[in-house]
């Protein structure tokens, strides 16, 4: 899934992440977009499609969360396979833990 480059949250992530944004940069962009939307609502101004940008940004996050969970499941199954070497089990464990940390960062930001 690719986001529109004009999406405020995406553009903010690119600016703060210097062309290689982290998920925390993207979440920061979503938070700024939420502030913008809330201010416009409080002032009775139109949202100017900001609500659609927020929807796109949240769908992007959910899309990637599902991909990460799928990878965790796939590598957990590989690790449990009877013919997996001890070395590979260690590598799979390390990879699974890294993916799980990514999910925790996403949910605790």
Attribute tags:
109 residues, mainly alpha, 4 helices, 0% strand, disordered C terminus
What's the SSE blueprint?
Blueprint: H1 8-17, H2 23-42, H3 50-80, H4 86-108
- Please provide the ordered H/E string of secondary-structure elements: HHHH
Q: End-to-end distance, in Å?
A: 22 Å
Shape assignment = elongated
Number of strands: 0
How would you characterize the overall build of this protein?
With 109 residues, this protein is mainly alpha-helical. The protein is built from 4 helices and no strands. The two termini are 22 Å apart. Residues 105-109 have low confidence and may be disordered.
Summarize the structure.
The chain is mainly alpha-helical and 109 residues long. It has four helices and no strands. Helix 2 (23-42) runs antiparallel to helix 3.
